[in-house]
Design brief:
There is one protein chain. Helices cover 67% and strands 0% of the residues. By secondary structure, the chain is mostly helical.
Length: 122
């Protein structure tokens, strides 16, 4: 195994004159640089698995969540967020979210979803 050059002193030189407060601030700046691309990715990308998880946390059972996400995916609305689609439809109907979602599993209210998210369908 090749010996690794120990260049820690050289790489840490710019840190040596910093106070604890400055080091703390620098740490959080570097952390933000690492985490920001992940946050941006999470804000702009989703998956059927993530959306099923969201619906489970909203109170739907796994069968309902799966059927809803499949239908939302078919309608090319997944990028809008499955929970958001159901929430907006329920708000339009002035109805409970679980009731609305259950009715959507049964095939109702999809025309409302289409109208609310007009232009999303391919």
């Amino acid at each position: 195994m090749k010996e690794r050059n120990d260049d820690f002193e050289l790489r840490a030189k710019h840190l040596q004159g910093m106070t604890d407060e400055e080091l703390d601030k620098y740490f959080w700046e570097l952390t933000e640089k690492v985490v920001n691309p992940l946050v941006n990715l999470a804000e702009t990308h989703t998956s059927q698995s993530i959306e099923r998880s969201v619906l489970l946390r909203m109170g739907f059972n796994s069968l309902q969540a799966s059927k809803l996400v499949d239908r939302i995916f078919e309608k090319n609305l997944l990028s809008k967020g499955a929970g958001n689609v159901i929430y907006r439809v329920s708000k339009e109907l002035n109805s409970d979210i679980i009731k609305t979602g259950t009715e959507m599993v049964d095939g109702k209210h999809w025309e409302i979803a289409d109208a609310l998210f007009e232009g999303s369908e391919k």
